[in-house]
Amino acid sequence: MSKKRIEWIDVAKAIGIVAVVFGHAMTRHGTMFHFLYWWHMPIFFIMGGFFLKPIINNNWWGFIKKRIIPLLISYLICGSGLILLSHFIRGESWSYTAFYFVRLLWGGRTLNHYLSVFWYINVYLLALVLTSIVITYVKTREYQIIIAFISLIVSTSYKHVWFFNWKYIPWDFDVAFIALFFMLFGYLYFHKIQQFVKDLWIMIPCGLITLWIFWMQHMDRFNFAFYLKSKIIHATFHHIPISRVSYILFIPILICMVVFSFSYYLCQFFPQFVIKPIQLLGQQTLGIMYLHKAVIDIIDEMGYKSAIMETILAVIISFILSLLYAYLKRRFKQNRHKNIPVNG
Known about the structure:
By secondary structure, the chain is mostly helical. The protein has one domain (7-332). The chain is 69% helix and 4% strand. The chain is built from 13 helices and 3 strands. The chain has a 3-stranded antiparallel β-sheet with strand order 1-2-3. A hairpin with a 4-residue loop joins strand 1 and strand 2. The longest helix has 32 residues, at 307-338.
């Protein structure tokens, strides 16, 4: 594959992260709130599968060093920083703060306040490993598809499971099997997705179906709730319970496809001076994911309650801080390489 970035993927990431921030800024849990939660996390798991490759020659250490350790380091650094920030701004006790470092290691649903979205990194890392195992050791495409379906069906077949009498599973491990389904979908169908997003004969009907589903939810004809972190999933049609799996199979993927197509045509019809900033925003989604909840909470404590303005401020501030973190990390690497002695 060419090293040139695919613009619409970065744009889709930008749209996805704005949807995440807006969802966290909203206080009224109406139709728009539910709509955002249908797809704003699945889209990142789907895109996470786009460029995955089987592990060659069982070089798992190379995979871990390249894909896992950098995310794990950023998780620990950003998490620790936000725990300390929360201590001083929220006036938490040192005993609460000290125990929060244990919760950071446990992850998943134990994380709240400034770190409430950090569960995503736990699940993303687990899904990366699980998906890489599947595509490395299961060579047949049909079997990979079967595993994706089994993973989704089993992981959504129960509401809760206890972990040694503790109600929170480390790193939301069981949620990772739902994420595995979406990541495998992205891996298996990336080339098809690239074709479909350009085909208006497919995407316009998909867009219209998305609008119809949104309207049906608004009119309370059916009700679909999909909260990955807490694994709260329910689906009814005319107040009659239906298969949760069928909704998860259909609605998140449908909306993600519409977002992908919208991003593609945005790149086609808008000039580069419009697309490039959006693309740059999409390249900083991880930093914004880490930081935006803290910004929203601080703005809330200042008494400012507009969800739209909170979203704009949280995206901008988190984006700037993310760029600053990337710059400092780059400078640190450069200085470290300069200080390495060279024998000669």
